[in-house]
Amino acid sequence: MNQTFKKLAVSSAVMVMTFAGISVSLTNVVSAAKKPTKITVWHAMNGVYNDALKDEVADFNASQKDYKVEITGQGDYTTLNQKVMAAAKSKTLPTVAQATYTQVPDYAKNGIVKNLDQQVKGKQGWSKKDLKNIYPGFLAQTKYKGHYYAMPFSASVRIMLYNKTLLDQYNLSVPKTWDDIQAMAPTLAKDGIATVGFDKSYDMELNGLMHAVGVEGVDAKGKIHIDDPKAVKAADMLNQLLQQGYAKSAGSDMYGTNNFVNGKTALSFTSSAGIAATKQAAPDGMEWGTAVVPSYQGKTATQFAGNNLVLTSQANKKQAAGAFAFMKYVMSDKETVKWAKATGYLPVTKKGAASKDYKKYLQANPMAQAGSNSLKYGFSDPAFTGFQEYRNQLLAAVDQMITKQTPAKDALKTLKQQTQKIVKEAK
């Protein structure tokens, strides 16, 4: 073999080896490219809610190949919040977490969450038409200081339950106004029955009455109106119902379910997502139903509740894209209806609520109708840094009015002072 031939042979062998190496390398690259980006989600869904969430995730994962969502339950909402705070310190946050919208300001202040402006306003984001399709009360929960920080997911609203068996016994109609409630109360009180049943606290009912007359405890500009004369008047009415025996707070019963199903209260205020618990507790033969909360001074307002999805600060660019893709998926008209049917929560989009599928569900499940009818009356309070502490103080103020009969004017004046301090320290 001459030298030229040997050189060619060696050169060819090197080329073969090099091409083989490139082939292996390309195979690895293609394999890596096909591997979906993992999106971890922490949640507080249990029981049937957890099962429904698993179905949503399985559907999303099957709908595309770019991302794979993996969910982990973290107990209840309090435990979830504690674990999120701890994970932020140890830098072990998930990609996405469930959170109430009122937690977002504190999360943003502590660098726990990222805003979603880039995703919402980007090519794969929401059009103006898409945003208008989301109920305003739920859309309001997504923003903090003008930026998008959350996406609605599990939505509920305050509704009224009524004991039809009891009302029929006393020839009473389902009340449509708070004046109706006051008028029917003496009839029931003669036999030791309270007309109204509250949760352990009536803070959400008070908030609804305040919004009905145009008062926000703390508005979007941070101005505090919790001691407004209209708020005081609404609190006085609720306190008088309690003091006269026309209303009953739940106490250790927490949500008042036992009082209602045992005939101790004719009406009860609860979350639209809590109907299942009442169904389970109601005795055989008890006829009961649901209704929109009564109007106050000619207007109806009911508070939205539930939880949203947030993007944590430890998510990289690919994870952020996947997280938003998942958020958009569960908020789609079809999926939000599927979630509502499986859990008792409400659709977050107008088209979803108006769909044939959801209307068919309501016909088969008339108890859910009140929640659907309440969507147009729903509101969400503006979130601000320190909101959780404000709410704790609000609950304490209501407790003083209930247990110590502290005058509403005094309790709400003190609450305003406490809130001023909270807002100031949060700046």
TrEMBL record:
<dbReference type="InterPro" id="IPR006059">
    <property type="entry name" value="SBP"/>
</dbReference>
<dbReference type="GO" id="GO:0055052">
    <property type="term" value="C:ATP-binding cassette (ABC) transporter complex, substrate-binding subunit-containing"/>
</dbReference>
<protein>
    <submittedName>
        <fullName>ABC transporter substrate-binding protein</fullName>
    </submittedName>
</protein>
<keyword id="KW-0813">Transport</keyword>
<dbReference type="Pfam" id="PF13416">
    <property type="entry name" value="SBP_bac_8"/>
</dbReference>
<feature type="signal peptide">
    <location>
        <begin position="1"/>
        <end position="22"/>
    </location>
</feature>
<keyword id="KW-0732">Signal</keyword>
<dbReference type="GO" id="GO:1901982">
    <property type="term" value="F:maltose binding"/>
</dbReference>
<comment type="similarity">
    <text>Belongs to the bacterial solute-binding protein 1 family.</text>
</comment>
<dbReference type="GO" id="GO:0042956">
    <property type="term" value="P:maltodextrin transmembrane transport"/>
</dbReference>
<dbReference type="GO" id="GO:0015768">
    <property type="term" value="P:maltose transport"/>
</dbReference>
